[in-house]
Amino acid sequence: MAPRTALAPDPHGPGGRLQPLDDAGTPLGPPEAVPDLAAAVAAREAADRPRWVWAAADSAYAPLLPRLPDRLARCHDLRLVEPLLLAHEGRFGAPRSLGAAWSRLRGLPVPDDLPEPGLADADDGQDTLFAPDRLQLPPGADPLTAVVAVHAEQQRRIAAIADPAARQRFRLLAAAESAGALVAAEIAHDGLPWRTDVHDRLLTELLGPRPTVPGAQPRRLAELAVELQHALGAKPFNPDSHTQVLRAFAEAGIQLGSTRSWELKGIDHPAAALLIRYKELARIHVAHGWAWQDAWARGGRFRPEYVVGGVVSGRWASRGGGALQIPRILRRAVVADPGWLLVVADAAQLEPRVLAALSQDAGLARTAAGGDLYEALAVTAFQGDRDKAKLGLLGAMYGQTSGDIGPLLNTLRRRYPAAMGYVEAAARTGEDGGTVASRLGRVCPPATAAFLDLTEADTSGEAGGRTARARGRFTRNYVIQASAADWALALLAALRRRLHDLPAAGPADRPHLVFFQHDEVMVHTPANLADEVAAAVAEAAEEARRLVFGDTPVRFPLSTAVVDCYADAK
DNA sequence: TCACCGGGCGCC
DNA sequence: AAAGGGCGCCCGGTGA
């Protein structure tokens, strides 16, 4: 039996080709053409559970999902592993498609990556069956041959990482990133349960009835615009226009530096509160209102389009739909199907815990061994003032220097020298033009060429110094955010495997992931399995801790809720 | 008319 | 005095 199997779908039609591989990527047999790729994949999955090797999940896995009887356990996604390797090798930004990797391997001219498809592409009426081939292979190149060759090369490059521990962590990174590709495709396929009737009711309560003319302003927004105008004694103006708002306030004798809500909150005038409310409601209307519902939440499911590895830190991004920015108030619309429940789990205070584990600061690790890290920190170092403890630690992780934070940072530096030294070293590396990496080896992008050209005289000047400090804040935060993303990906992979292994009557009755947001996961599960799912999440978090951080006293507790409705989770 | 930019704010 | 990291999305405004 083959530990790995390369897979390449035919560009047209349901067939494809397969080839068994060993773990180094060496073929164990000849390529095999199959007329029904889904059936052939399902049969081999049942027999062997190989790690599937493909160019990219969106072209190789997503089209199979509707025709597969069950999920695939493992994959190696060349399109995701390639940029991880390139960055690790100091070649950040090189094209990452299968064709680009293949061309590099063959010494051919390397094609640029195609631009990411945007909303416009999804909306232009094109049949997705005829979407352009995104593999970027040179004419005449055989996709399966390229998949096999590029995979063997990636395995060789991973094996070439000199430090055994770093190599092992990078293997984990590649596996976790690839598991993310499976999860993202499956969430897009299954969708997050979304009650459009509840969403409608919320929108109507907030905005007034749905306008009958598409694009018309909802009643409540129109009313607020008029109330705002009257409160200022102004002529009609557009509250969506920054400049018009500033002018209207100025004419009423209120000088604003901006229209930001935090500035408005300090203005003692009825117009300020009206504008804040207008902006809140307008935001919901334009970003997650009726138009969004029509486009993204039809048929009782919201299908987010995640972009795995879309953020340099390894966080996921989303493409259209705003999956990672759903306003809290709309969580009311996320309701489990009848007989099902939602298990919602989020990692509590993930980033400071990651800092404690990364820096191996014994003192900070002690505060992170129990429940509320900020409370423990406050008791130890801030006379019980939890707000100060939280502010100080966040400031340390983000590189904040403004406000009254200096004394807090000094306290932290005194009490937790290893932790503070860790982030400050990362910041210095960035200020000096260097790169930093996550725990598992995701390397941050280099500074821009313009930055690297700055001389020491430049960076000790005002503008250059600002640029250098901005770069320092980025690398300072990167080591934490990216290592937190490592942990979250490992959690996701471990949880997905556990869910797959839970006993279920059939694939349709199996608990499945429906949402992922940086440090939070949601599983839609038959009600009778909810407790087992909650236990699986906790076990997955513990597994992720062990895999990513090894022997650390730091714990990564989850706050887990079993609910009917997302809004009740916390 | 279109592409791009920055403001502003949603989420972490 | 000000100097908080990462995104996506929509808007108005601007310049080609």
Automatic annotation (TrEMBL):
It catalyses: DNA(n) + a 2'-deoxyribonucleoside 5'-triphosphate = DNA(n+1) + diphosphate. It comes from the Bacteria. The keyword Nuclease applies. Pfam families: DNA_pol_A. Gene3D superfamilies: 3.30.70.370, 5' to 3' exonuclease, C-terminal subdomain (1.10.150.20). Coiled coil: none annotated. Its EC number is 2.7.7.7. It is an enzyme of class 2 (transferase). This is DNA-directed DNA polymerase. It comes from Streptomyces rubellomurinus (strain ATCC 31215). The lineage of its organism: Bacteria, Bacillati, Actinomycetota, Actinomycetes, Kitasatosporales.
